[in-house]
Amino acid sequence: MLRLLGIAVLLNLLLLLPLWLRFGGISTRWIALEAVLLVALLVLLPAGRLGWLRPLLTFTVVMAVLAGLGDVATHLAFGRSLNLYLDLPLLRSVFHLLEGNLGIWAAWAASLAALLLIGLGGWALNRALRAGQRQAPGGSAAPVAVLLLVASTTLMAAQWHHQRWLPVARAPAMDTLRFQGEQLVETHRAHREFSARMAAAPIQATALPGLAGRDVLLVFVESYGVSAVFDAPFAEVVAPRLDEMAERLAAAGLSMATGVLEAPIRGGQSWLAHASTLGGLSIDNSLWYRLMLASGRSTLVDDFRATGHRTLTVMPAITLAWPEGEAYGFDEIHAAADIDYAGPPLHWVTMPDQFTLHHFEQRIREPAVEPLFVQIALISSHAPWTPILPVLDDWDAVGDGSVFHRWEDAGDPPDVLWQDMERVRDHYALSVDYALHASARWAEAFVDDETLLILLGDHQAAPLIIGEQTGFGVPVHVISGDAALLAPFLARGFVAGMRPEAPPPIAGLDALRGWLHEDFGE
User: Fold this and answer.
1) Cys-Cys link to 466, which of 163, 196, 227, 250 (CB 3.0-4.6 A)?
2) What residue ranges define each of the domains in the chain, with the CATH number in brackets?
3) Measured between alpha carbons, how far is 480 from 386 in angstroms, rounded to an integer?
4) Helix (H) or strand (E) holding 329
């Protein structure tokens, strides 16, 4: 009997753990109905009858727990629920994040250890169920088991119909698997609707003569959201930087307009923000992203090529094959391997933002003959936010990047820093400050009357860092030596300078392409 009680407690803890991690409130939810049901089955079913069912039950419990833990991680990272159909491909990105922060061997070791732990957990649970079934008491225990079976089944049926008759009881496995099934159906429906929406409203490439002959630079700052500007403790660092940027840029003869637009995602998946901005269509999941690229739908890349620009992208975080870049149709793709950087990688960050901007200016922009449309992704403000580099005053000193070797081991490594979440938040603010500082000094030196710079965030940081009720807004700064280029943005609600007005956002990032068509198109 004690063994059965131990199995019941173990199952109860396993099934409720994701709920406790996600919502807290252990005192308000401490019975997992599936645990009661399984123990009742152990008592009532003969050993031979349960043999074929035991592995299936074990597999179901393990999958439900893993999906529940995945939902917890997805909420902390992206502020949304897990969708197995869409999110399983992100495991590859998680591996590369581990690789960048811990090294290839540590990443493989962590991945194999996780798989081994899952396998051992399933094996141990299956053995416990078998041992418990062998030790199941008969006779007088049977009526109690029947009562537990009827009670748990009844309460689970009620919860299936969204009625909770016993407030402290939950059916976590049933709820998790049901939710994922509903997500699958909903995702297929959204797939059809999205395909129909693209077919019904195609956007052809549109020349933008109002920007002909000018360099148009679309520069994304990683994890730069409105929380960095308005919320403590981040604003104490970032807001003064924006004021200092406004003074320096104005002194250099540049005009600025700033607004807040809504990113389709938060916490990660920057490529969805890039796709929404380039394509003029809100893309908030990997399925829609693949559909848009496969559809041949035109983007800003095609618009600027029709205007006479040479189109290219500078993506220092891309370290593997990137067929998506080819699908966009850029004339040139400058991924990490294409950038001559002699400095050290800084954990996940392949190269600091100041070097990325220096390389673009010296090796790409200066030799160019045609006007350029460029997408640049700055990555120094990507987790793990260590080390924090200074911005070098002398751009010539940046050179081939070897100067950054002196900061290779600066600051705490990620495994030390991330033991203190308050320090992590401080480092997040400092990394955004670094990205903005480097961008400002570059713009001060190299943006002129023939340049339109759109400096914008790709998404808010993870809810784990900034909180869950922070929305999806990102600052968008439009900078040029020609004030006339900023007038359409001011007419749409942007404000002069580098400080945005408080949210809500004016529109989504997908609106930007349509605005350029209306304001600078034929």
Assistant:
1) 227
2) 2-188 (no CATH), 205-520 (3.40.720.10)
3) 32
4) none
Cβ(61)–Cβ(174) under 8 Å? no
| β-strand pairing of 31-32 with 495-496 | unpaired
**Mean of pLDDT over the chain:** 83
Closest CA to 30 of 38, 19, 39: 19
Digit-coded pLDDT (tens) for 5-46: 666 777 777 777 777 777 766 667 777 777 777 777 666 666
Question: Among positive and negative, which fits the CA dihedral 36, 37, 39, 44?
Answer: positive
Query: What string of H, E and C letters represents the secondary structure of 141-198?
Result: HHHHHHHHHHHHHHHHHHHHCCCCCCCCEECHHHHHHHHHHHHHHHHHHHHHHHHHHH
Place of tokens 């600025």: 256
pLDDT average, residue stretch 232-259? 94
Q: Tokens 């807004």 belong to which residue?
A: 473
Task: With residue 401 as reference, give the H or E element that holds it.
Answer: none
Q: Measured between alpha carbons, how far apart are the two ends of the chain, in Å?
A: 81
The amino acid present at 13, given as its one-letter code, is L
Token representation of residue 344: 């050290």
At residue 420, the 3 state secondary structure works out as coil
Residue 80: how many CA atoms within 13 Å on its side-chain side?
18
Q: What is the mean pLDDT of residues 395-414?
A: 88
Residue 380 contacts residue 351 (beta carbons within 8 Å): no
The angle subtended at Cα 133 by Cα 129 and Cα 135, nearest 5°, is 120
Peptide bond into 505 cis (omega under 30): no
The residues with which 378 forms a beta bridge, in sequence order, are: 221
Tell me the three state secondary structure of residue 318.
coil
Which residues, 6+ apart, have CB-to-CB distance to 282 below 8 Å? 264, 276, 508, 509, 510
Q: Tokens 């225990």 — which residue?
A: 141
Please tell me the distance from the alpha carbon of residue 491 to that of residue 5, in angstroms, as a whole number.
Answer: 69
> What three-state secondary structure class fits 26?
helix
Q: Do residues 220 and 458 touch, judged by C-beta distance below 8 A? A: yes
Contact indicator for 425, 234 with CB cutoff of 8 Å:
yes
Q: Return the percent helix, strand and coil in the chain, to nearest 5.
A: 60, 10, 30
CA distance 288 to 284: 7
CB atoms under 10 Å from CB of 437, counted, come to: 19
Per-residue pLDDT of 480-505, as tens digits, reads 999 999 999 999 999 999 999 887 88
CA distance 421 to 341: 32
Burial class (CB in 10 A: 0-12, 13-18, 19+), 267: buried
Q: Look up tokens 């050290």; give the residue.
A: 344
Residues shown for the chain = 522
3-state secondary structure of 517: helix
- Of 201 and 196, the structure prediction assigns the larger pLDDT to 196
